[in-house]
UniProtKB/TrEMBL annotation:
It holds the Pfam family DPRP. It comes from the Bacteria. It comes from Tropicimonas aquimaris. SUPFAM superfamilies: Cryptochrome/photolyase FAD-binding domain. This is Cryptochrome/photolyase family protein. InterPro entries: Crypto/Photolyase_FAD-like_sf, PhrB-like, Rossmann-like_a/b/a_fold, UV-DNA_repair_photolyase.
Length: 506
């Protein structure tokens, strides 16, 4: 019997299970731009433009392949502005069809569609998303019965499963993980590649006009818009990364430099997450660079680990923990998100750089997200749900399944430690070691307390002291608390008073 195949904005893959299971001679594809998806958080204009443009191009490609596509523009008359509403409208025109789709990436939307189908009595077939390397069942089997879930062990399973960087059952180079070689600060006299930029075509220009008009007031700059919006462009971006930036990806993975927004990062997450690139094809391209002698093992292993390790691992955690995960608040943190997350107006140079480039590019790299904006929010005691909504809104690669474990879990420790064995809390010293921001900052990173001291310094101790009941028994923090206990009480008071003054000003 004929199907209506719903294809979501982050399902733009030719090998999507629901397309493979369908038949172009019989079925109709539905794609819809809807306000409910475009505004469940105030998405960055570049993110909305990227998705709408990529959706419109993908619909064109499907038509060229012979599919009938019902594509609903955001401003089409009659658009009900929700995905279940658009399915309902399509089925009024195509009665008797069953709904066929690939499982949505977010719990929110999966539930919306399931509840709608149940209510309407519409037959619905939801296929598992085979674009991930580990199925739900595989992750569950792996996680079952383990006291602690550690990415490293899961990652090794994924190496074995995919055969990436393997010699039989032995890891390439004799070690699974070369991270210890990947913590170098960068120098600003190094050759700095840039991600491949793409010129908007007519279809994309129309989307830019739409987004400007409808979402122009959201946080974030729409132009210049240079993202890939087709699979072919995204494949070019992948080649460009593998040739230009990958060789140094490992060495400078954790580095930050003033004025360098991308360093040696791939800026591919947005393409992978929307389906323009497959995670495995990306890894195979990168592995090829290693075998051809164009990139060292520490870079290639580190990169592949992010994708088949972290990316798959956080997705597993998300589905194990939902619903409820995004409400977790281990420390009971209540502070609203400071306004400068939306304006970039702060005289902390590292924060201004991370937030400023987030506004301009809908992008910041991992260490900026984790050790600058994330670290600050946790130290300051910001409500993790507000932090979560900010991250979900401002990055072009953000979908809840990957964003929430990274924010709620890894960065805010709001789940009490599913993803890491201790909070990623750090004082200014870490940022100074890994970046050149401090040299041009209004604050003095070497100053620990009082006027002009780097705010990360007193906030770090205040965070630890404030949460001692929750963290005091953590074996990885014993030494840190010992250092605190050995401090003169006057010194302790200086730290806590300085922290109080900073927090009062937020
Ligand atoms: P690269 O540095 O080039 O890394 C290569 C690829 O590895 C990425 O494209 C991505 O697919 C994958 N990857 C790397 N780290 C992770 C990770 N921790 N989790 C999952 N995949 C990873 N990633 C998202 O895709 N969406 C998000 O919304 C998101 N939110 C984050 C929020 C916080 C607080 C933190 C600490 C991390 C977050 N990440 C998120 C993970 C990571 O920061 C981004 O994937 C990465 O910065 C994207 O840029 P890139 O493509 O240049 O990545
Ligand atoms: C993020 C997003 C946005 C901004 N707009 C749409 C849209 O209009 N139509 C659509 O099908 N998908 C959109 N998306 C992506 C969805 O939010 C995404 O598919 C779900 O969150 C599941 O991951
Ligand atoms: Fe950031 Fe502190 Fe360095 Fe300023 S001194 S850039 S606030 S770490």
């Amino acid at each position: 019997d004929a199907n209506l195949i719903l294809v979501l904005g982050d399902q733009l893959s030719p090998d999507l299970p629901s397309l493979c299971a369908g038949d172009p001679d019989r079925d109709t594809v539905l794609m819809a731009e809807v306000a409910s998806e475009a505004s469940y958080v105030p998405h960055h204009p570049k993110k909305i433009a990227f998705l709408f443009a990529a959706m419109r191009h993908f619909a064109k490609e499907l038509r060229n392949e012979g599919w009938r596509v019902r594509y609903v523009d955001l401003e089409d008359t009659g658009n009900s502005q929700s995905l279940s509403g658009e399915v309902e409208r399509a089925l009024e025109d195509l009665p008797g069809r069953a709904l066929l789709l690939t499982e949505p990436g977010e719990y929110r939307l999966k539930t919306e569609l399931e509840e709608w189908a149940e209510r309407e009595g519409t037959p619905m077939r939801m296929l598992e998303d085979s674009r991930f390397i580990a199925s739900h069942a595989e992750f569950r089997d792996w996680a079952d019965g383990r006291k602690q879930l550690r990415m490293e062990y899961f990652y090794r399973e994924m190496r074995r499963k995919t055969g990436l960087l393997m010699h039989g059952d032995k890891p390439e180079g004799g070690r699974w993980n070369f991270d210890s070689e990947n913590r170098k600060p960068a120098r600003d006299d190094l050759f700095m590649p840039r991600p491949l930029e793409h010129r908007p075509d007519e279809t994309t220009e129309a989307v830019l006009d739409l987004v400007e008009r409808r979402f122009g007031d959201n946080f974030g700059r729409l132009k210049p818009f240079w993202f890939a919006v087709t699979r072919a462009q995204a494949l070019d971006a992948l080649d460009h990364f593998a040739e230009e930036a990958l060789p140094c990806f490992g060495d400078y993975q954790d580095a930050m430099l003033e004025g360098e927004r991308f360093l040696y990062h791939s800026v591919l997450a947005l393409y992978i997450n929307a389906g323009l690139l497959g995670p495995l094809e990306v890894c195979h391209r990168v592995e090829r660079a290693y075998h051809e002698g164009n990139a060292p093992l520490n870079a290639v292993e580190g990169f592949i680990r992010q994708i088949i390790g972290w990316r798959e691992f956080v997705r597993g955690i998300y589905w194990m923990q939902m619903p409820g995960y995004t409400e977790q608040n281990f420390f009971g943190a209540m502070r609203p998100l400071p306004d400068f997350y939306w304006s970039g107006e702060t005289d902390m140079a590292c924060m201004a750089a991370a937030i400023g480039q987030t506004r301009d590019e809908a992008y910041a790299h991992h260490i900026q997200r984790l050790m600058v904006t994330g670290n600050f929010a946790m130290l300051a005691g910001v409500d993790p749900h507000e932090v979560h909504e900010w991250y979900l809104a401002v990055y072009a690669d953000a979908y809840e399944w990957v964003e929430a474990p990274n924010v709620i879990g890894m960065s805010q420790f709001a789940d009490g430690g599913l993803l890491g064995s201790k909070p990623y809390a750090a004082s200014g010293n870490y940022i100074n070691k890994m970046s050149d921001h401090c040299a041009g900052c209004a604050y003095d990173v070497k100053k620990k307390t009082g006027d002009g001291a780097c705010p990360f310094n007193p906030l770090y101790w205040d965070f630890l002291v404030r949460n001692r009941k929750k963290l005091g028994n953590n074996p990885r923090l014993v030494q840190v608390y010992r250092t605190w206990d050995q401090m003169e009480s006057d010194r302790q008071s200086e730290y806590l008073d300085s922290a109080r003054a900073i927090l009062d000003r937020l």
